[in-house]
Write a structure and sequence with these properties.
Layout (H helix, E strand, L loop, with lengths): L14 H6 L4 E6 L4 H8 L6 H4 E5 L2 E7 H9 L5 E6 L2 H10 L12 H14 L4 E8 L6 E7 L11 E6 L7 H15 L5 H9 L1 E5 L4 H8 L58 H13 L3 E6 L4 E8 L2 E2 L3 H13 L11 E6 L5 H9 L2 E6 L9 H21 L4 E8 L9 E3 L11 E2 L6 E5 L3 E8 L6 E8 L4 E8 L4
Parallel strand pairs: 7-8, 7-9, 9-13, 10-12, 14-20
Antiparallel strand pairs: 1-3, 1-4, 2-3, 5-6, 6-8, 10-11, 10-13, 14-17, 15-16, 15-18, 18-19
Helix pairs in contact: 6-7, 7-13, 11-13
């Protein structure tokens, strides 16, 4: 029988009283365990293994098991220490993920603390940062805020926009911390750091530190560290925080919604009753409609992987070459927790109802899902600080790359000069998998990242003559400008 030796041993003499309490579970720790050994231990749990393991950091694993499961592990030669026994699995996960204090470390911010930091930065530099409401949460009607940073936030600017967002999933709280750190870095270093100054001058940077505000509250306030979805009372009984109730916000977008997630309300990947059923997702849709972001980083945990569009119908995304270049560059700029390598870029699916296929398929936004850290969703302070710093390097890479090469311009009415929302079509690139890109109705402006070289451009709007540019030469750096004047049909 396979046996391993760990630092702590549970003898079979200790097991009978645990098993006697049939309704109890135990939090057990195995130390110094390699991945293949862990896989052997977790095979006992079958398809429930993901619900059993609390964390696997530095070769130490914390598992929540029934007393009977613990007995079988011991019989199979796995030696471990019992940390805590309780009839409540939530209590055991709180001990595993919050530590002995049973509360979230002060390293992490509550949502109110994030907003307070944004307000303090605004007090010092009202010209650089502002926060604004983009919607309310579905269940508890908390306000979801975005934070805009640019060199003049008094009004909207005609510049490329870049999005950073975190916490679609409530337990993946590192995203909120990375977004908060970015907010502080951009404002505090403006004028003293040349790169930061250039980025703030060049872009409209929008940060949504917490998309899932209700769920984040459940985790950050110490109610339940397992919480993933929003707090939508899907069974309608009026009782909140009945794990695993709620809707998975990262399965609720309307790009191939029906093919992703689960239709079971008790699944942790429940996609909701219909696309954009959740007001949090509606808020993100309104934001994307308003800004037409060039680039986006969406933070999740965990895996140290960058996911990007896509493999779908055995085809890659229309702009695969450029997407892959950016994904690899982003991944190679972020160090892993082990420090001996960097994040890997991998294709995601196009049929999942998640943010990256939706933002890309609907708007042309190059959205990259950054799975921060490895082995847990909530990390000890020292690990969390290192993850944060390494991910700031990834942000620096994206902010450097957000300035092209690509194509930009305005679309205007030939008679009135007014801006127009029109289709910006590159027929040699675009295909039916994606929706036609459009200019902004408010300004007529469009930005489109492209590889250098010649591109055929067609601009279309109902009621106007099409404008065809057979060869637009996109340079190796920056934005190649084109001004489009559309003539109304007689």
């Amino acid at each position: 029988m396979f046996r391993t030796v760990f630092h702590y041993i549970l003898t079979t003499l200790f097991l009978p009283p645990l098993i006697h309490a049939q309704t109890s579970s135990v939090l057990i720790e195995m130390r110094g365990i390699e991945q293949d050994q862990l896989n052997g231990a977790l095979s006992l749990f079958g398809d429930q293994r993901g619900k059993a393991i609390a964390s696997y950091l530095n070769k130490n694993v914390l598992i929540v098991a029934t007393s009977a499961e613990a007995k079988v592990l011991s019989e199979r030669g796995f030696e471990f220490t019992v940390i805590l026994e309780d009839t409540s699995r939530r209590t055991l996960f709180k001990r595993a993920l919050y530590g002995s204090s049973m509360t979230l470390s002060s390293f992490y911010h509550s949502y109110d603390e994030i907003l307070a930091e944004a307000d303090a930065l605004h007090e010092r530099r009202p010209d650089l940062i502002t926060r604004f409401a983009i919607g309310k949460t579905t269940q508890e009607k908390r306000t979801v805020y975005a934070i805009r940073i640019s060199n003049n936030v008094a009004g909207r600017q005609d510049k490329p926009a870049i999005l950073f967002n975190g916490c679609h999933h409530a337990d993946e709280i590192m995203g909120a911390e990375i977004c908060t750190a970015l907010m502080n870095e951009l404002v505090n270093k403006y004028g003293s750091d040349q790169s930061v100054t250039t980025w703030v001058d060049r872009y409209e940077i929008v940060i949504v530190p917490v998309v899932n505000v209700d769920g984040h509250h459940v985790v950050s306030s110490g109610i339940d560290p397992r919480w993933r979805k929003n707090t939508h009372d899907t069974n309608g009984n009026g009782v909140l925080y009945e794990y695993p109730e709620g809707v998975d916000l990262n399965r609720n977008y309307d790009f191939n919604w029906a093919h992703g997630g689960s239709g079971d309300p008790m699944s942790i990947r429940y996609r909701g009753p219909y696309p954009f059923s959740e007001t949090e997702n509606q808020a993100m849709r309104a934001l994307a409609d308003d800004y037409r972001f060039v680039l986006s980083l969406t933070y999740h945990s965990q895996g140290e992987v960058i996911y990007y569009p896509w493999i779908w119908r055995e085809r890659k995304a229309p702009e695969d070459k450029l997407l892959t270049e950016l994904a690899n560059g982003l991944g190679s700029s972020i160090r892993t927790m082990a420090g001996d390598t960097t994040y890997k870029a991998e294709y995601g699916a196009g049929t999942v109802g998640q943010s990256y296929p939706w933002l890309y398929g609907r708007y042309g936004t190059f959205d990259f899902v950054v799975e921060t850290g490895k082995g847990a969703h909530i990390f000890p302070d020292s690990d969390a600080a290192a993850i944060l710093e390494s991910n700031l390097e990834g942000i620096r890479y994206i902010l450097d790359r957000g300035n092209g090469p690509g194509l930009t311009g305005h679309v205007r009415d030939a008679r009135s000069g007014k801006p127009l929302e029109a289709h910006i079509w590159l027929p040699d690139i675009d295909m039916e998998d994606i929706q036609r890109r459009t200019s902004l109705e408010r300004t007529g402006r469009f930005f489109r990242l492209l590889s250098p070289g010649k591109h055929r451009l067609i601009v279309l709007k109902n009621g106007y003559e099409p404008e065809i540019l057979p060869e637009v030469e996109v340079g190796k750096e920056g934005w190649t400008p084109v001004e489009i004047i559309l003539r109304p049909l007689e």
